[in-house]
UniProtKB/TrEMBL annotation:
Protein name: Solute-binding protein family 3/N-terminal domain-containing protein
Record's keyword annotation contains Signal: yes
PROSITE patterns attached to this UniProt entry: TAT
Signal peptide extent: 1-22
Source species: Roseateles subflavus
Key words of the record: Signal
InterPro entries: TAT_signal
Length: 252
């Protein structure tokens, strides 16, 4: 074999070896192995998120579409049970590779983090009220806000642009709670307030669990409730764009 032919053959072998070495790397990148793991933060809040003792992932209305998206996209992740207030701190502090499950999108949060494609869109917002409060089925948002009934809202929580604006303009008595929904319901039962905005899916579960609670509280619906907002994955800005883009492609 001539020297020239030997050189051509050697070059071809080297090129083939380089291609073979590149293929596993490309496959790893496609599967998400080249991306860092992200903590997926969820809370114990049925029926949206429900931990399963000894099992991962958790279950719930918001968890299920996210679980499918994570499995399909194969992005590395860890499920971490985390209270809601702690979730916000981790996402908005800029120090964690973390995404919080099921948060509504608004301008203030968009300035501090980034959002996934929609995960879940539930029923229109309603109100959970004491049965002895001056409230009735089919009231408008404004009528409820202008009633003498004492309103309870969750600190730092967004109920959507329409209701948030009415809450900001409210002149009547306003109580704020920092706990989870079960704690807010206890405040209503104890008479610290008369009503609170509520997601029907969630409070119906709570009323079914506690017959005594259902004797004190009932669910009422607004006549002009805005269309339900979508719940998203709310991610720290440190989460790589490629991680979120791959997940979004699977969610869509």
């Amino acid at each position: 074999m001539s020297v020239a032919r030997r050189l051509v053959l050697a070059a071809a072998l080297l090129a083939g070896a380089g291609l073979s070495a590149a293929q596993p790397a490309a496959s790893a990148a496609a599967s998400g192995d080249a991306l860092p793991p992200v903590d997926v933060l969820f809370q114990d809040r049925p029926p949206y998120y429900a931990p399963q003792p000894g099992k991962q992932p958790p279950e719930g209305l918001v968890i299920e579409p996210l679980r499918r998206g994570l499995e399909h996209s194969r992005v590395p992740h860890r499920w971490v049970l985390t209270p809601a207030v702690r979730q916000l701190l981790m996402v908005e502090s800029g120090q964690h590779l973390a995404c919080a499950v099921g948060w509504f999108r608004n301008p203030a949060r968009e300035a501090k983090g980034q959002f996934s494609a929609p995960l879940y869109r539930g029923q229109p917002l309603a109100m959970l009220a004491r049965r002895d409060a001056p409230l009735r089925e089919g009231m408008s948002l404004r009528e409820a806000m202008e009633s003498p009934a004492r309103l309870l809202v969750k600190q730092g929580y967004s109920y959507g642009p329409e209701l948030d604006a009415l809450i900001a303009m409210r002149t009547g008595e306003l109580a704020r709670g920092t706990g989870e929904v079960t704690q807010l319901l206890r405040m209503l039962q104890a008479g610290h307030a008369d009503w609170m905005p509520a997601s029907p899916e969630e409070v119906q579960v709570q009323l079914q669990r506690d017959g005594q609670r259902a004797q004190t509280l009932h669910l009422l619906h607004f006549s002009d409730a805005p269309p339900p907002q979508a719940r998203h994955l709310y991610c720290n800005k440190a989460v790589p764009a490629a991680w979120l883009e791959r997940l979004n492609a699977a969610l869509r």
